[in-house]
Design brief:
The structure holds 2 protein chains of 2 kinds.
Chain A (H helix, E strand, L loop, with lengths): L2 H8 L3 H7 L18 E6 L34 E8 L8 H7 L28 H10 L9 E7 L12 E4 L2 E3 L5 H33 L4 H30 L2 H4 L15 H17 L3 E8 L17 H5 L6 H26 L14 E6 L16 E3 L9 E9 H11 L24
Parallel strand pairs in A: 1-6, 1-7, 2-9, 3-6
Antiparallel strand pairs in A: 2-8, 4-5, 7-8
Helix pairs in contact in A: 5-6, 5-8, 8-10
Chain B lengths: L12 H5 L10 H9 L16 H18 L20 H11 L10 H16 L1 H7 L11 H13 L13 E6 L9 E7 L3 E5 L12 E10 L4 E9 L2 E7 L4 E5 L8 E8 L4 E10 L9 E8 L6 E2 L5 E2 L30 H29 L9 H15 L5 H14 L3 H14 L1 H4 L9 H14 L6 H8 L10 H12 L3 H14 L20 H20 L7 H4 L4 E2 L1 H7 L15 E2 L14 H6 L8 H12 L24 H8 L3 H15 L13 E2 L2 E2 L4 E4 L5 E4 L2 H10 L1 H16 L8 H13 L4 H13 L13
Classes of the chains: A alpha/beta, B alpha+beta.
Chain lengths: 443, 805
């Protein structure tokens, strides 16, 4: 058993360990602080669920997992479900728009010109979303600051800015666009490193060509080209040293994931894109690029066609079918089960990845919050919004199912802040925050 | 030394001087060092030439009385006198100066025949321009692309995969007004050209026949940028709006969602002078159940050094030009010590900036060019990544300005494709290499290219600061139309140059030339005492800039393209703001829309083309008063091409408040009356005084301190002829007709376009251009065409230095 494992298993804090064991605290993990890195990820899937095959029958610790949540069985001790959370925000916008636009903001949409299938038209949210609020708090403190603060992943989010495609807001009228192209996200995360590697790998060939070119020049003209070649050589040497040092240094936190080539953003590539984005997410947590993320699979009213499940209809279309349409009903269960599998895969990847801070696995310090803009597709209800959380980033009591009856979802947003150790007296529209954060869930 | 390898070894020292700012001292030492390098076709050394008795006598006197200060061979570099002794005073003037002032400690010591002898020696051996040329003939030197050339070349490399731009003379954006919430050709109610976009429709219908409750307007056209620099595009819109820019698919601003309170959108971009950027705007008032916002829209910008204004009509074109690209990487400035940018040095900062530029372009190639290419070549075979290989090969051939030999193709294309499986990554790798390659960066290392290709390379470099990228030109190359040993080749080259000279890419280079000639940095702010010149603010100076741009642009692009009009056009481009400030001569001839500039009435006594344009006049002035010295120096150096050395020491102008009764002219005469000052100021002042009718803001005045303005002046030509001017009209006429001015203009145009000294091409080239310029009625566009032809058809010298070490 190594030191890290020992400490994790015995649950001795790093500070205590260094006292107890007489170890210099810096010996733990990398040279930085060994404080726990608390993280949270908001995973979104659209169009509501089939409640009868989603919510456990039994609440409390002895809860059961229905068909849709079955893929998460291996995490049952590390997860929780929360029923009775209701998005009660009124005002402009149709159910889907308010469903996604108020989900993490807890506040109304501005009047605007985006008209849904019903209700009044609306614009963007009037306030910041909880993920961005947490990011701002973490970034304001040098101890929790990271390179990006937060990362917004998308999977097949249409290339269209409107109220249905945006979940995250940096502030009133400031939607944050998720990045759906894994290669673009890769560039954002590793672009600089990759560019330097690429530069290093072409310079040798270039130097050779400099020589070929200068052969035809007079001695005087060659002088400028020689100076230029010297510069190229200097850069080449510097890069070699730099890249060698980077490889030697803690390879885990500097590892650059490898993406499969030439995957285009097309419906049928959705499973592969989801996995690529998951890999990038996991790797950016390892590298401590960010401690907050959102992971938006399609959008509110999303229409993926899950042909890999032999489902050719779009998800949103199916979600409007009455429960009596057995075929559609069954397909919707399968679709939601597929989303659960993606969450399970993400959790599994985090579970098998050690946390570089030295405190167990990534999953031990990360909570995946899986949610949806609706409770149920064909009724467009925003009562009983799906909330399933996996992993120990938030200080909640995991391993049980909760049912709050019918409470405003602003109270849950406040609980998320409390769980991150940054409680607030209200979040979003204060009218829905009067009863404070949810009770009985903090560890 | 291969003469076909570009740009200069050395300009003559005497020429170098007149590029330096009057207020700044000049780094002579560096120039001398550069000038000494290399020789070529020099005459015999001075010492070996048969010397007349007069000269050897002069040489003896020089070594006894002058050399301790002026150094051997007049090189200076002593504690007493650091500047080299060179200039363009005539032999007579030089003798006079020596009689009057030299040697400094006892001017009586060298007079009469001694002074004549020493003047002759100095003049013949190193002082005169001819002596300078004999001693250190200017040569061309290998150069890399300048920053501006990199921007232009990459823009054309990109454009190659679309269509080339064309010159559009109409102004404004095309507006299509629909009685529907989206594009529906049956509901199109009106199509018109809107001179500017600055609308407040309120809750009313924007045009007749369109429902106020739901409409859609599509504006299309292009943005024309006159000067390179950082621009902020600012859109104010209360309704849903989307703006595409540059590439037709590139959404710059996406306000698809109208949301209360979100009405301002700003984007900062680096844009390139002379280039146009497609602008496609969708503006939608959507039907809704709730209260509708008032519909307002304006398209504004903050140009470099400017303030936010509605984009004026002359920067908007109703045609949607092909997709285009502007490099966003900031490149370090190039050496301008000779008056024009030169790529004669490389350093780490430049090298790193070029890496960033290559990555920037690689991104555009992977994200924009490649999908476009794939669409166009859907049917081509893609075996062994054949499509990608063809795409990259085509790009490399344009970037390298020649077809690829197998070894080069393997290195730049095949090896890079083999290195990575991902197509986007392969494109980035390949473009990184292409753009960092000496084959791209040194435009005239093209000896392996066909002769036709070499000719085209020089045409594109001279006229556009770029590379041959247009299909028609590449087709001429492919057919080998420019081989000089074939009959009619020169005429074919001239026709191609003429065709290129009708292209907007020439416009950008021309505009830059005029502003540099007039010594106006377009981004520079000009401020004046607000108490003396109320109303002279940023908005006024932006209008002045527009007015000057339109003046030079109209004259240049008119069929006559007559240089003389630059001094003789007797009306201005004006608007109400300018009229209000500048008075009667700036009254618009007829009422037009309030946004476009209008012609003013003619005034033969007040308006003399760019010479008296307020942007020029106010720039050559102090905060409160005019500056005849700045104006005189400007005319001597830039317009007449004469040499002035910097003042003996830095002087502060006399404070006008201490001499409240003196006019500016009297004050300047008082300060520069000393004999030593007069050596130069006798040339400077009489030219500057002729512009005293224009105050510090460039406003016409007849009196100063209740005394009438005396605008008489004079000039002694290079040939020694004395000319006097009664007023500005005489001065303007002189500048239009004078030989010194013509030669200076030709030299400046040549050096701006070729980025090499005219003298390096041999004296006869200069003479030929002067003759042609006169014969063409001083047609500037034709001058530029001839310059391009001269450069492109310059005989390639024997390859004597190959392989030498």
């Amino acid at each position: 058993m190594d030191r890290r494992e020992f400490l994790t298993r015995t649950g001795i804090s790093a500070a205590a360990a260094s006292l107890v064991m007489g170890l210099p605290s810096l010996a733990l993990g990398s040279a930085g602080s060994s404080a726990r890195r608390r993280r949270v990820v908001f995973v979104f899937s659209p169009n509501g669920v089939i409640p009868d095959h989603f919510w456990p029958d039994n609440v409390g610790k002895g809860y059961d997992l229905k068909r849709i949540l079955a893929p998460l069985a291996e995490f049952q001790d590390q997860m929780l479900t929360m029923k009775g959370i209701c998005n009660q925000i009124q005002g402009d916008g149709d159910g889907h728009m308010r469903g996604i636009g108020c989900l993490l903001t807890g506040i109304e949409l501005f009047p605007g010109d985006i008209q849904g299938g019903s209700d009044t038209p609306a614009g963007w949210s009037m306030g910041i979303s909880v993920d961005q609020h947490i990011k701002n708090r973490l970034q304001a403190d040098a101890a929790t600051q990271t390179r990006f603060g937060s990362l917004e992943f998308g999977v097949m989010v249409p290339d269209r800015a409107d109220t249905w495609t945006r979940m995250s807001y940096a502030g009133a009228n400031q939607p944050v666009a998720p990045i759906s192209d894994p290669y673009q996200m890769f560039d954002r995360l590793y672009g600089q490193t990759k560019n330097r590697q690429m530069l290093a790998s072409v310079l040798d060939g270039l130097s050779g060509d400099f020589k070929r070119v200068s052969k035809v020049l007079s001695k005087e003209d060659r002088r400028l080209l020689d100076l230029h070649l010297d510069l190229v050589r200097t850069v080449e040497k510097e890069l070699k040293t730099e890249l060698a040092a980077a490889t030697k240094n803690d390879s885990a936190s500097h590892a650059v994931p490898k993406l499969p080539p030439n995957i285009e953003e097309q419906n049928d590539n959705m499973p592969q894109i989801t996995q690529m984005q998951t890999e990038l997410l996991v790797n950016s947590f390892v590298a401590d690029f960010a401690r907050v993320a959102s992971f938006q699979i399609t959008n509110s009213v999303g229409q993926p066609r899950m042909r890999w499940l032999d489902i050719n209809e779009g998800h949103h279309g199916l979600s409007h079918e009455p429960d009596s349409n057995e075929e559609a009903y069954e397909k919707l269960i399968q679709i939601n089960t597929w989303y659960a599998e993606q969450v399970a895969h993400m959790a599994r990847r985090m579970k098998e990845t050690p946390d570089p801070s030295g405190h167990g696995s990534l999953l031990d310090n990360t909570t995946i919050v899986w949610t949806n803009e609706l409770g149920k597709g064909n009724s467009h209800t925003r009562n009983d919004i799906p909330f399933v959380m996996v992993g120990g980033g938030l200080d909640f009591q995991f391993g049980q199912a909760y049912d709050f009856g019918k409470v405003s979802h602003n109270r849950l947003l406040m609980s998320l802040l409390e769980g991150m150790g940054m409680p607030e007296s209200s979040f979003g529209n204060p009218d829905f925050c009067g009863d404070g954060a949810l009770t009985g869930i903090m560890a | 030394m291969n003469l076909n390898l570009a740009t200069i070894r050395s300009n003559s020292i005497s020429k170098a001087g007149h590029w330096a700012g009057w207020d700044r001292y000049f780094c002579w030492t560096v120039l001398v060092w550069i000038a000494i390098v290399g020789s070529g076709f020099a005459d015999q050394p001075v010492a070996d030439r048969p010397a007349s008795d007069l000269i050897s006598r002069g040489q003896a006197i020089y070594s006894q009385q002058c050399q301790s200060c002026h150094g051997e061979g007049g090189r200076g570099q002593t504690d007493a006198y650091s500047d080299p002794l060179s200039g363009d005073s005539s032999l007579g003037e030089l003798t006079e100066i020596i009689v009057d002032t030299m040697p400094e400690e006892d001017p009586e010591q060298c007079v009469g025949a001694d002074a004549e002898a020493v003047a002759k020696y100095i003049y013949e051996s190193f002082y005169s321009a001819a002596a300078q040329l004999r001693n250190r003939p200017p040569q061309q030197q290998l150069s890399r692309l300048t920053g501006g050339q990199v921007e232009q070349s990459l823009a054309d490399l990109y454009q190659h995969f679309y269509e080339p731009p064309w010159r559009e003379t109409k102004q404004g954006l095309n507006g299509a007004y629909f009685d529907a919430g989206r594009w529906d050709k049956d509901k199109l109610k009106l199509e018109r050209v809107d001179p500017v976009l600055d609308f407040d429709f309120g809750r009313e219908s924007p045009v007749e026949g369109v429902d106020a409750g739901e409409f859609y307007i599509h504006w299309s056209g292009s943005l024309l940028v006159e000067h390179s620099g950082r621009y902020e595009i600012v859109v104010h819109s209360t309704c849903s709006m989307k703006m595409r820019f540059g590439n037709h698919d590139n959404v710059l601003i996406n306000n698809n969602v109208q949301s209360e309170g979100k009405t301002e959108f700003r984007r900062s971009l680096n844009l390139i002078g002379g280039r146009q950027y497609a602008v496609l705007i969708d503006f939608t008032q959507r039907k809704r159940k709730t209260e509708m916002p008032e519909a307002k829209f304006s398209l504004c910008w903050v140009p470099p050094g400017g303030t936010e204004t509605v984009i004026p009509p002359e920067n908007l074109l109703p045609s949607t030009l092909p997709s285009s690209y502007a490099l966003q990487t900031k490149l370090p400035p190039d050496d301008r010590s000779y008056g024009y940018a030169r790529g004669t040095s490389v350093d780490r900062q430049w090298n790193d900036a070029m890496t960033a530029a290559a990555l920037d372009f690689g991104n555009a190639a992977a994200k924009e060019l490649w999908p476009n290419y794939k669409r166009k070549h859907r049917k081509d075979s893609d075996e062994n990544r054949g499509r990608l290989r063809s795409f990259l090969t085509e790009m490399a051939e344009v970037a390298f300005r020649q077809s690829l030999d197998p070894e080069t193709k393997k290195l730049y294309i095949d090896d890079q494709l083999a290195a990575v499986d991902d197509d986007q990554l392969a494109i980035r790798r390949c473009t990184l290499m292409l753009i960092k390659s000496p084959r791209f960066l040194y435009p005239l290392i093209d000896e392996q290219a066909s002769e036709s290709h070499q000719v085209a390379n020089r045409l594109a470099l001279t006229l556009f600061d770029s590379l041959p990228s247009d299909r028609w030109l590449l087709e001429e190359i492919r057919k080998d139309k420019f081989r000089l040993d074939q009959k009619g080749a020169v005429q074919r080259i001239r026709s191609s140059a003429e065709r290129m000279a009708g292209d907007p890419r020439l416009h950008g280079k021309v505009m830059q030339m005029f502003f540099e000639w007039l010594d106006i940095n377009p981004a520079l702010e000009i401020t004046k005492d607000p108490e003396k010149y109320p109303g002279f603010d940023k908005l006024l100076t932006l209008d002045l800039r527009r007015s000057l741009e339109q003046t030079v642009s109209e004259i240049f692009w008119s069929p006559e393209s007559d240089y003389r009009q630059l001094f003789q056009q007797d009306w201005n481009w004006t608007n109400q703001r300018l009229h209000k400030f500048y008075g009667a001569a700036w009254e618009p001839l007829e009422a037009g829309d309030s946004q476009s500039l209008q012609r003013s009435r003619s005034d033969k006594n007040v308006t003399f083309g760019v010479l008296t344009h307020p942007l020029v006049m106010s720039h050559l002035s102090y905060y409160e008063t005019s500056s005849p010295i700045h104006r005189g120096v400007f005319l001597v150096r830039r317009v007449l091409g004469r040499t002035l050395r910097p003042p003996n020491e830095a002087f502060t102008p006399l404070n006008p408040e201490l001499h409240p009764h003196l006019t500016t002219r009297q004050r300047v005469e008082l300060q520069t009356g000393d004999a030593k000052c007069q050596v130069c100021h006798q040339k400077i002042n009489p030219l500057g005084f002729a512009l005293e009718n224009y105050d510090a803001a460039g406003r016409f005045r007849s009196t100063e301190h209740e005394q009438p303005i005396d605008s008489s002046g004079g000039y002694v030509t290079r040939a020694g002829e004395s000319v006097s001017f009664a007023n500005t009209a005489d001065l303007a006429r002189f500048m239009a007709e004078n030989d010194d001015a013509h030669r200076a203009f030709i030299e400046r145009v040549f050096e701006h376009f070729v980025k090499q000294p005219l003298a390096a091409f041999g004296e006869e080239v200069g003479e030929k251009l002067v003759t042609q310029f006169r014969q063409s009625g001083f047609n500037m566009r034709q001058l530029i065409v001839e310059i391009a032809v001269v450069v492109a058809t310059q005989p390639q010298p024997e390859e004597t230095t190959h392989g030498s070490t």
